[in-house]
Amino acid sequence: MLLKRFDFAEFARPLFSDRVAMAWADPREPMQRLIGDEELALGAVNTARAREFAAGRAAARQAMAQLGHAPRPVLQGESLAPVWPAGLTGSITHAPQDTVAVVTDDPEIRALGLKISDTHLLPYTRWADICTMAELRWLGTLGPSQRGHFAGLLECIKIAITKASFQAVAAMPGWHEIEVAVDLGTNHFRVQLHAAEDQFELPNDLSGRFALLSQAYIAGVVWR
């Protein structure tokens, strides 16, 4: 299991402030109850995908409850992205044995992005596809055995950023339009988006935190 219950608060919860609620569900358990029009999103998907979807909605409602909100449906929009109820925003991420949702009602937060990825060494042949020149230079400052590992972390962070971007402005920047500056001392990262200003409204602030577990990367981003 990537995020065991006793690991959950220790490693994942600190990625966000206390204005963001977080909850966990197990997609391997019997399918959680759906509400409202959520069932319409399932269509003819297989059992594993249905359980994963339902676990995400169950985790989202647990997070809503932490904020004092009654259970509300989280529908599915374009690119399978969740459609959050009015006044809420959040993100859902899935791993084979873990589903995690974050939700906030903070009006200053436009979107959240959360991603869990299996720990992996990103092949050298893919670095230039994922990384900007500044990020490649940063990788070059690391030891040879670390570079593929942290290239994988950059990929995880950028996926979290694209999830937040789609929620905030219904657009996803390309890999090279996202530039991440990682601080390994504090597990924080800062983000610059190099998309054209007329492509979508750029955020006032885009930053986040990450956690490195033995089996997983976890990245969380806040779009203000």
Q: Strand sequence of the main sheet, in spatial order?
A: 6-10-9-8-7
* Strand percent estimate: 25-35%
Give the H and E element order: HEHEEEEEHHHEEEE
Structural category: alpha+beta
Name of the CATH class of the largest domain: Alpha Beta
Low-confidence stretches: 1-6
CATH topology grouping of the largest domain? Ribosomal Protein L22, Chain A
Describe this structure as you would to a colleague:
The strands form three sheets. The chain has a five-stranded antiparallel β-sheet, covered by helices on one side. A three-stranded antiparallel β-sheet has the order 1-5-4. A two-stranded antiparallel ribbon has the order 2-3. A hairpin with a 3-residue loop joins strand 9 and strand 10. It has 224 residues and is α+β, with helices and mostly antiparallel strands. The chain is built from five helices and ten strands; from the N terminus they run H-E-H-E-E-E-E-E-H-H-H-E-E-E-E. It folds into two domains: 5-109, 4'-phosphopantetheinyl transferase domain (Ribosomal Protein L22, Chain A), CATH 3.90.470.20; 115-223, Alpha-Beta Complex (Ribosomal Protein L22, Chain A). It is globular, with a radius of gyration of 17 Å.
List the helices and strands and how they pair.
Elements: H1 5-12, E1 20-25, H2 47-66, E2 75-76, E3 82-83, E4 89-95, E5 98-104, E6 111-118, H3 124-130, H4 133-140, H5 144-169, E7 178-183, E8 188-193, E9 206-212, E10 216-223
Antiparallel strand pairs: 1-5, 2-3, 4-5, 6-10, 7-8, 8-9, 9-10
Describe, in short, the structure shown.
By secondary structure, the chain is an alpha+beta fold.
